[in-house]
């Protein structure tokens, strides 16, 4: 449609040129002096304006709509298009008057100065918006598609929305609830505006979490940061920028932590991203019995945040996939008796790739990074483990060497399940071995394409079962 309009403009310009330069003698002869000469001069001005229109359509069709919109996916604000059109029209008129009548455009501007002054006073607010719009576009402060937060006392609270268009007087924002907000351009130049889309990429947010003063700060940090590592695997949060945690301040009642993380704000409202993280951190505090600060004087019994290690181990083992729905209460108690609670500081590599292993770890607090060695001495992260995850199950069940290295991202508490504890369990209940082999085969096949082939899956189960029987042969003597 726009190219059709361009073709029509070119045809009209061609006809006007033919009339001005090819038929000027006929026009002069057909009209009485001085009207013939004036008609030819007027036609010359029209030709100059028509040339300006063609140039304007060329820019709109091939640059703004063709190059910026289709190839770069960028929209040009209406105010910029309008400015170019006005400038080209003014240039066309001035060139036509100059070549046809010898009239300088500067003289026209001087003559209209008084009228422009009166109109400027009468239209002060609209003109302020127009020049604000021009300033915003010349500064490249934002573009169509950017997400903005506008802070202004004209709004009851900061406004967050996506730029849909910029006209002479107004910028249009689409709010998160679907409504459209019309913001006068002068509001954007006289108030702070945060552009979440510039520079591109994820932006850092933070959530404040208060914890009772008497609770261990180190444990609180490992619990909160471990949950943050789990949560950043959920969009619009991003996992390739690690979260971190700081102690912001200490009061007589509380330690205030700031959990910092990154999110793609082109995909979600910052408040929504903060809410997602805060909800996850709050659930983690409830799960680990981390107390909130008491802000009033109250006579209560002393807080006891400790927990029976056996109860904690029993709950952890009951909820992991290998033992879920496989162990009775007595069997679970027997397994718990042979397990050991351990703590590791930040940076500890408690599993190293290639080393022999005969135990499995259940994560109780904190987070750990799983990485594999690559050619050239480099390592590549393949997963991040958090509370409730397990690692090392193949080494526990089959004695296989460690397939990856696991390094603490935070201070950690883990439950180690050893070969000795499994031997006593399997010696008492040999039938459990087949159940465990099925679960292990399902976990392994879930990571590969053979999960869709039942025959290959059964072969994998038998292979794992054979490895387990060899590894635990002493339990059946």
What does this structure look like?
The radius of gyration is 37 Å and the shape is elongated. It is 48% helix and 20% strand. It has 4 domains: 2-111; 129-195, SH3 type barrels; 203-287, Alpha-Beta Plaits (2-Layer Sandwich), CATH 3.30.70.100; 309-476, Jelly Rolls, CATH 2.60.120. It contains 16 helices and 16 strands. It has a 5-stranded antiparallel beta sheet. Strands 9-16-11-14 form a 4-stranded antiparallel beta sheet. Strands 10-15-12-13 form a 4-stranded antiparallel beta sheet, with helices on one face. The protein is an alpha+beta fold.
Summary, kept brief:
This protein has 477 residues and is an alpha+beta fold. It has helices spanning 2-22, 24-30, 35-71, 78-101, 105-111, 113-122, 124-139, 185-190, 217-231, 270-287, 309-318, 329-337, 393-398, 419-428, 432-445, 454-471; strands at 147-150, 159-166, 170-175, 180-184, 193-195, 203-212, 244-250, 254-263, 340-344, 349-351, 359-365, 368-373, 379-385, 390-391, 405-408, 412-418.
Features:
single chain; four-stranded antiparallel β-sheet; SH3 type barrels; 4 domains; Alpha-Beta Plaits; 16 strands; five-stranded antiparallel β-sheet; alpha+beta; 16 helices
């Amino acid at each position: 449609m726009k190219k059709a309009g361009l073709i029509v403009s070119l045809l009209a310009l061609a006809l006007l040129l033919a009339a001005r330069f090819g038929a000027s003698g006929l026009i002069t002869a057909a009209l009485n002096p001085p009207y013939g000469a004036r008609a030819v001069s007027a036609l010359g001005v029209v030709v100059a304006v028509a040339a300006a229109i063609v140039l304007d359509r060329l820019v709109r069709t091939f640059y703004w709509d063709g190059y910026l919109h289709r190839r770069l996916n960028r929209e040009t604000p209406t105010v910029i298009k309008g400015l170019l059109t006005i400038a080209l029209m003014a240039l066309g008129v001035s060139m036509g008057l100059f070549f046809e009548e010898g009239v300088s455009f500067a003289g026209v501007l001087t003559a209209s100065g008084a009228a422009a002054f009166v109109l400027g006073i009468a239209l002060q607010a609209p003109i302020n918006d127009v020049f604000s719009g021009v300033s915003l576009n010349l500064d490249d402060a934002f573009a169509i598609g950017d997400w903005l937060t506008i802070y202004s006392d004209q709004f009851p609270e900061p406004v967050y929305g996506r730029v849909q268009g910029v006209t002479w007087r107004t910028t249009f924002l689409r709010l998160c609830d679907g409504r459209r907000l019309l913001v006068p351009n002068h509001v954007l130049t006289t108030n702070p505006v945060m552009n979440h889309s510039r520079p591109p990429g994820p932006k850092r947010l933070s959530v404040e979490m208060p914890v009772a003063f008497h609770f261990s700060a180190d444990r609180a940090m490992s619990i909160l940061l471990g949950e943050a590592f789990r949560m950043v695997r959920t969009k619009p949060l991003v996992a390739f920028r690690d979260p971190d945690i700081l102690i912001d301040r200490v009061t007589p009642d509380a330690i205030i932590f700031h959990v910092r993380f990154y999110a793609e704000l082109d995909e979600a409202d910052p408040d929504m991203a903060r809410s997602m993280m805060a909800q996850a951190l709050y659930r983690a505090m409830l799960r680990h019995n981390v107390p909130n600060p008491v802000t009033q004087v109250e006579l209560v019994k002393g807080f006891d945040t400790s927990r029976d290690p056996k109860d904690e181990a029993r709950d952890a083992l009951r909820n992991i996939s290998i033992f879920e729905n496989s162990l009775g209460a007595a069997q679970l108690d027997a397994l718990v008796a042979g397990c050991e609670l351990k703590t590791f500081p930040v940076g500890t590599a408690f599993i190293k790739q290639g080393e022999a292993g005969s135990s499995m770890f259940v994560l109780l607090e904190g987070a750990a990074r799983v990485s594999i060695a690559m050619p050239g001495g480099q390592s590549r992260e393949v997963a991040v483990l958090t509370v409730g995850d397990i690692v090392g199950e193949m080494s526990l069940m089959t004695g296989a060497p460690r397939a990856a290295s696991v390094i603490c991202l935070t201070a950690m508490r883990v439950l180690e399940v050893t070969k000795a504890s499994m031997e006593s369990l399997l010696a008492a209940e040999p039938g459990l071995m087949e159940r465990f082999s099925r679960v292990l085969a399902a976990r392994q096949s879930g990571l590969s394409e053979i999960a869709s082939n039942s025959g290959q899956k059964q072969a994998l189960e038998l292979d794992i079962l054979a490895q387990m029987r060899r590894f635990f042969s002493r339990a059946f003597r």
